[in-house]
Design a protein that fits this description.
The complex is a heterodimer. Helices cover 34% and strands 23% of the residues of chain A. Chain A contains 9 helices and 10 strands. In chain A, strands 6-7-8-3-9-10 form a 6-stranded mixed sheet, sandwiched between helices. A 4-stranded antiparallel sheet of chain A has the order 2-1-4-5, covered by helices on one side. Chain A starts with 18 loop residues before the first strand and ends with a helix. Chain B has 2 domains: 41 residues; 223 residues, MetI-like fold. Classes of the chains: A alpha/beta, B mainly alpha. At the A-B interface, helix 3 of A face helix 7 and helix 8 of B. Bound molecules: adenosine-5'-triphosphate and magnesium ion.
Chain lengths: 271, 282
Amino acid sequence: MASPTGPTGTPPTGRDARPVYELRGVSKTYGQGRIEALKPVDVTLTEGSFSSVIGPSGCGKSTLLKIMAGVVPPTSGRVVLDGTPVTGPRRDIGMMFQQATLFPWRTTIENIVLPIEIRDGRAAARAAHADAREILELVGLKGFETVYSHQLSGGMAQRAAICRMLITRPQVLLLDEPFSALDEISRDFMNLELQRICMSRSATALLITHSISEAVFLSDRVHVMSSRPGSIIAEIDIDLPRPRTTDMMVSPAFGAYVQQIRSLLDKGAFQ
Amino acid sequence: MSSTAPEGDTVWTEHVSLIDRIPRSVAMVGLLVAVVALWQFVHSFGIVSPIILPSPGETWADIQLVARNLLSGGYMLKALWITTQEVLLGFLFAMAIGFSLGILVGETAFGERAVLPYLVAIDTMPKVAFAPLFLAWLGFGIASKVALAAFIATFPIVVGTAAGLHAHDENARMLFKTMGASRWQTLFKMKLPTGLPHIFTGLKIAAVGVMAGAITAEFLGGGKGFGELIRVAASQLQTPRVFSLILYLSLLGFTLFWVVVLVERRLVFWHRSTISETAGLA
Ligand SMILES: Nc1ncnc2c1ncn2[C@@H]1O[C@H](COP(=O)(O)OP(=O)(O)OP(=O)(O)O)[C@@H](O)[C@H]1O
Ligand SMILES: [Mg+2]
């Protein structure tokens, strides 16, 4: 399938590419129906696109992501990835959280091949070391392979977590506030890295964030959620050329998107 | 000149008191010398009867006498070997039962709901009170001593293992879930390694308890172990002998404890406590 590209060389955005992830009427209540975390939502992610979800704290963003990743069952609705329903964890889904969660008794490289070790055993994990080294180089961690993970800084640990997510070559990446524990400088840098990785692998990605500018900067489409029980109140397509650069963040178009999303969030919060 | 501080002068430094500046080896030897000197003083002035408190010299002579007996493979070595067997077997049984029960309690809802309350109830009992039971059931040989030693040492291992299995955080659990890990994989690759510091805390308490169990059982149930030697020497008012036997017995306990610490250092090299906790014993 020829990927349609715009005059600016924009990769396929939400409107004109093949859908890979489809959520229909997905909702979640916790505690025998006492806590309604998520109202029924519909989300479609198209191949190679980058989407983000933004919304007030506690509106069910993490819940949505866990349902998509197949680690929490939805109360209603269905999740389909690449034509097959998601009913449990899958290796074509890569996931990343706010905490790097590396295991201190493992070296960096052993942490990275852990998903392979879990799914295919120790021999396969050893065979994946070459692969892991390549990815480590991609995120600038070359030379830290045999360092124990408690000796890594926060930013380095989060980069190692990216490697661990990428080692199984997932088709989609689900990111739950992956860089929100980092300082602003490393965070901007990591966002550029993330864009580069997604573009080079043409991976489909969904990012949860509390930062409006981060959402606009990275995304082809931003899903705005209302406060709990969460529902999607708007989907904004971001029509900025790729690759995005930090210079764009001061452009008027960027500012207009930020403003639009901010007012939507303000309205959603006081409903 | 822009600085107002006098050049070359340190204006403010951390103050360490004189007593805290003494090097460890000097401090340890110094304290020992002081205690022996006090002991000699108490003895020389007849403050306490020599039957109750023998002189340091007498005790030292007996320590050497016992050493000769041990090194020449005399009856004391045989007694020490019996006690060593009791302690080691007791520790092995305690680990086998302790880990199994710890995993049952820490990993399964059934264990936590049904088994844990009973374990807590038994743990609060004075466990040496069970010694006569073990003697009645298992006789006066080594088995009853192993049983009491293991019985006392099991509980810290259960508690350490169960606590260790709850030491991981929600993120690690979620991560293993997303990787599609089975229950066993989650247990062996994440929960148990995370819990090792707790488990070793339990093992160290158990290493101390297993000695107490074996010796108590020997006091109460006879046999041919080191505890019996101590009991006989005490009943004959051979106080220097009691002192020197206790010294050698404590070497056995110290060795066991030290082995546990060494294994811990190898396995839990990544945890803060390993460095600080063992520093005092190095
Ligand atoms: N396992 C659970 N059991 C019960 N309630 C839960 C559980 N997980 C989440 N909730 C509730 O569901 C709601 C949504 O939680 P969720 O973690 O999805 O929010 P969030 O949007 O990710 O919040 P944040 O921005 O703070 O990360 C919250 O009110 C939370 O208390
Ligand atoms: Mg969240």
